[in-house]
Write a structure and sequence with these properties.
Largest sheet: 7 strands, mixed
Mean pLDDT: 82
Structural class: alpha+beta
Number of domains: 2
Distance between the termini: 81 Å
Low-confidence stretches: 1-10
Helix content: 40-55%
Shape: elongated
Order of helices and strands: EHEEEHEEHEEEEHHHHHHH
Number of strands: 10
Strand content: 15-25%
Length: 347
């Protein structure tokens, strides 16, 4: 649920109190398993990126600047979004008032900016003209979230509770995990928001809808590509069958001579099928080599599948080899059954 601050009246601490009250009402709704709030969500239009000195750079290394997606979240957000905790824990209510500022970071953040086994690692941020000195602590590491979509590169991410000055400004997004159909809770959530912030603009959307919208264009492109691929496979099968069967029919005289010289039918059929499969194997080898060279062009459309996916490359031979066998076997079997004298007279 997306709740912009429509009139700009609720800022800072008033906004945090409003969010806490709204979350309490959301958790009281039947079917709500977990609820949390954040300054942004995966796959939305809001983006907040923070730059700061890296918490850890290794022994003897020069300080480096870190850059990370900065999520300001309430306790309950990780449970509502289903973030996978790799090590450590999620936020607790006591973290909001703790003197030690807890951080949860993504695996990519930990890999780039933290020592091995980062849970419990602390570092001090010097005071500035507007903020006092503070100590941060890593309390958990979660799996990477691709905020820009499944095809986006993995970026470092960190999560903080809304300590001052890390407060909600401008808008806040409410995430609910439900045991029932999410759409059934939309009217109740809208009423709760209207009661607390009458001027707020509200948008409700499920995470599955956002995921679907993020891949709509690529799904359409892949659907068109798959249609043409199936058409090409069908044409290749028809062409392969036609060429091989015609080549076998042209060898009727040869097969008749071999039969007249004492070759058995089974030997003739095996000869034709073997030679047809050799030609087919050569064509498949050249085709697969060309496909492997061109897969880099499609790499940007793939997610969860490598460009040299074994299953995909096995699909073409699995379809074309049986076609080649049938294309050789049927004409060869018919040719082997004819009388040798008749085969010799056909020339």
């Amino acid at each position: 649920m997306f709740v912009p601050d429509g009139d700009g009246a609720e800022r800072g601490e008033p906004m945090r109190i409003l969010v806490d009250t709204l979350l309490d009402r959301a958790r009281a709704l039947p079917g709500v398993v977990a609820a949390g709030a954040a300054n942004m969500m995966p796959l939305d239009r809001a983006t907040q990126i923070a730059g700061f000195p890296a918490p850890w750079t290794g022994p003897g290394a020069a300080p480096v600047s870190a850059r990370s997606f900065q999520y300001v979240v309430t306790p309950g957000y990780a449970e509502a979004l289903g973030l996978r905790v790799k090590t450590g824990r999620v936020f607790r209510n006591s973290d909001v008032t703790s003197d030690i500022r807890p951080w949860i970071v993504s695996e990519e953040f930990a890999r780039l900016y933290l020592p091995p086994n980062p849970v419990g690692y602390r570092w001090t941020v010097p005071a500035t003209a507007t903020t006092p000195q503070r100590t941060n602590e890593i309390v958990g590491v979660v799996a990477n979230v691709r905020k820009g979509g499944n095809d986006a590169a993995v970026q470092p991410e960190h999560y903080q509770v809304p300590h001052a000055p890390m407060r909600f400004f401008g808008h806040v997004e409410i995430a609910l995990r439900t045991a029932s159909e999410p759409a059934s809770l939309a009217p109740a959530m809208r009423a709760a928001v209207r009661a607390l912030a009458p001027s707020a603009a509200i948008e409700t959307v499920t995470l599955s809808q956002r995921v679907a919208e993020s891949v709509d264009q690529r799904r359409f492109a892949l659907s068109v590509l798959a249609t043409f691929a199936l058409l090409a496979m069908a044409l290749a099968s028809i062409g392969l069958y036609g060429v091989l069967s015609y080549a076998v029919s042209q060898r009727r005289r040869e097969l008749g001579v071999r039969a007249a010289l004492g070759a058995a039918r089974g030997d003739l059929v095996a000869l034709v099928v073997r030679e047809g499969l050799i030609v087919t194997a050569l064509g498949l080898a050249l085709g697969l080599a060309g496909a492997a060279a061109l897969t880099r062009v499609m790499q940007g459309l793939l997610f969860g599948v490598t460009p040299l996916d074994a299953v995909s490359f096995a699909a073409a031979p699995a379809m074309l080899v049986p076609v080649a066998i049938v294309a050789c076997l049927l004409p060869a079997y018919r040719a082997a059954r004819i009388d040798p004298a008749e085969a010799l007279r056909t020339e």
